[in-house]
Specification:
Jelly Rolls; globular; about 290 residues; Immunoglobulin-like
């Protein structure tokens, strides 16, 4: 915690409010924090904190799960608000000999939870009113609780009613060191893109062939970097406009491509050159049909 005091030792009101909220959260969820140990895996989900950075603007969702364990009890923290009324923990999928779950409780909630366990994961129905607006914690009891390996299938992006394909940060598959999802300006973006070997890719379904204009929403404090977009054996280079702030994004028109055949295609964004690459934050890429 970085709690700055005034010269007289008092705290700013917003700092006091933050500490009070933290104390309230610990009262509810401290059981899953104190006297616990790491589980066999740290968690699951796309959002991962990068080491060596003091930045806390990650866009966590209910799919981002973190685990602790105390004896035979497993605690699973969902780091975001479950928008659809349920949390799915894929690491606790049903198998023949693992994860024999007997009970699940939501810390801070007294009523019984509805849940089911399938080969795809443990699905927990959350109450309409959650005990915290921040991370929530499930207390899971059972026998032989072990993480089940799973793969995350990449979603296929479909065009909207105007034919525009929006490749958002949240739907990207990220490869390479450090690169990850965050939320500069309170909207998801791909960030920590320091390493020139890292890249992002999407799958999109094309129904209408022809020319598409490409736009990118990018923030950067550099004015001499370049990003290459690849699709259907074509490459187009973007030279992002300088924005001067990692949270200030500008829409860049980077040119057009021709898509000759319908179906599912892969779109890849990568640094144009390892020698000249300088980091950017990427919020989205759009493919807009040209009339």
């Amino acid at each position: 915690l970085n709690v700055v005091q005034r010269p007289d030792g008092s705290l700013d009101p917003e700092v006091e409010q933050m500490l009070l909220e933290m104390a309230d959260w610990i009262k509810i969820n401290g059981e899953g924090i104190y006297d616990t140990r790491p589980w066999e895996i740290y968690g699951e989900g796309k959002t991962k904190a990068a080491g060596g950075h003091f930045r806390e603007d990650f866009n966590y969702s209910a799919a981002d799960i973190r685990f602790t364990v105390k004896g035979k009890t497993l605690y699973a923290f969902a780091l975001g608000w479950p928008q659809n009324g349920k949390v799915i923990i894929k690491s606790l999928a049903k198998t023949n000999d693992l994860n024999k779950i007997s009970s699940i409780k939501l810390l801070g909630h007294q009523s019984k939870l509805n849940w089911k366990q399938t080969e795809s994961g443990l699905e927990i129905i959350t109450p309409s009113k959650l005990p915290s607006k921040y991370a929530i914690c499930f207390k899971i009891s059972g026998s032989n609780l072990k993480p089940v390996p799973f793969t995350i299938a990449q979603s296929v992006i479909k065009p909207d009613k105007n034919g525009t394909i929006t490749l958002s940060a949240e739907t990207a598959e990220l490869f390479g060191p450090q690169i990850q999802l965050e939320a500069q300006g309170n909207e998801p973006n791909i960030g920590f893109w320091d390493n020139p070997t890292a890249n992002a890719s999407w799958k999109a379904e094309i129904f209408k062939t022809g020319k598409y204009k490409i736009q990118c929403s990018i923030a950067t404090i550099h004015n001499d970097t370049a990003l290459t977009i690849e699709l259907q054996n074509q490459q187009i280079q973007a030279k992002p406009e300088f924005t001067g702030n990692w949270a200030v994004f500008k829409t860049n028109d980077i040119g057009s491509v021709s898509i000759s055949s319908p179906g599912v295609i892969v779109i890849k964004a990568r640094p144009s050159s390892a020698d000249t690459w300088k980091p950017i934050n990427l919020r989205w890429i759009k493919l807009i049909p040209e009339q």
